[in-house]
Amino acid sequence: MPTLYSFKQKDVLCSALGKYVKRASRESIKARGRFTIALSGGSLPSQLAQGIVEDESIEWDKWFVFFADERAVPLNDHDSNYRLAEDALFSKVPIPRDQIFAIDQNFLNDTQELADVYEKDLVRVFAAKETVKIPAFDCMLLGVGPDGHTCSLFPNHELLRENIAWVSPIEDSPKPPPRRITLTLTVVTHAHNIAFVAAGQSKQDILVKVLETPDEGLPASLVNQMGGDRVTWFVDDEASKLTVFPKKEFKL
Ligand SMILES: O=C1O[C@H](COP(=O)(O)O)[C@@H](O)[C@H](O)[C@H]1O
What is the ipTM of this complex? Predict the structure, then answer.
């Protein structure tokens, strides 16, 4: 069963998220010598950055950073998830640049090629598909939209059934911009640690649906169900106001 932590203040939420990521980083480096993390866009990069940028104990040189989803736009575009992470995090911490995996700007006009080239980056870091059937990220950081989407996996979309590709293109995202790439549900749910972050009133109804009525088949519910006790929710009291899902006290 997933764990739900709810915090009165957003800065406390961010610092708890930071502690969770720092622990995942420490344990992964101890066990496997590196830390592989996939970041979402939206509000997540700044929430994460608030909790970790000032920490001097993090072994940034062991971090390998991917994007859980990305929009098919230039990296300096306001819609780019990379740009959000660059501004909030990468510009402030010494993660080696060749260990930050952005989409290849040469393929913005062809989302299938964009996804295939991005998948090759995963293959280089996690080993060939013949050896590793599904890459296991150490940490997957996710947001959830009011419609239940997570990454660029949208409700009732055929992409939810993709079980071969690690990275897929999407040309009809209901949330703009429409052209994107995303890690597939199989990859997202295979991670060692999966955290959702949701704050504010706009997330109240979707938290009730995802946490209390998992049978609706929403993308975030599917991640929640498939990830089970590897899933942790970091939310604020505003977002969790309507859910009766049991909350735990945060201790790390
Ligand atoms: O379009 C997207 O939206 C989701 C949710 O964003 P949030 O700001 O409501 O948390 C985000 O996780 C995803 O990466 C992004 O491309």
Answer: 0.97
Q: Which atom of ligand 1 is nearest to the CA of 175?
A: 1
Nearest CA to ligand 1 atom 8: 42
Residue 31, token pair as written in the block: 């066990």
Q: What is the pTM of this model?
A: 0.97
* 178 pocket-lining for ligand 1 (C-beta < 6 Å): no
The rounded distance, in Å, linking the Cα atoms of 37 and 141 is: 8
The tens digit of pLDDT for each residue in 139-148 reads: 999 999 999 9
- CA–CA gap between residue 88 and residue 40 (Å, rounded): 13
What CATH code is assigned to 3-236?
3.40.50.1360
d(CA 19, CA 161): 34
Name the residue of 14, 69, 70, 196 whose CB sits within 8 Å of the most ligand 1 atoms, as the mutation to test its pocket: 69
Q: Report the Cα–Cα distance between both ends of the chain, in Å, rounded.
A: 18
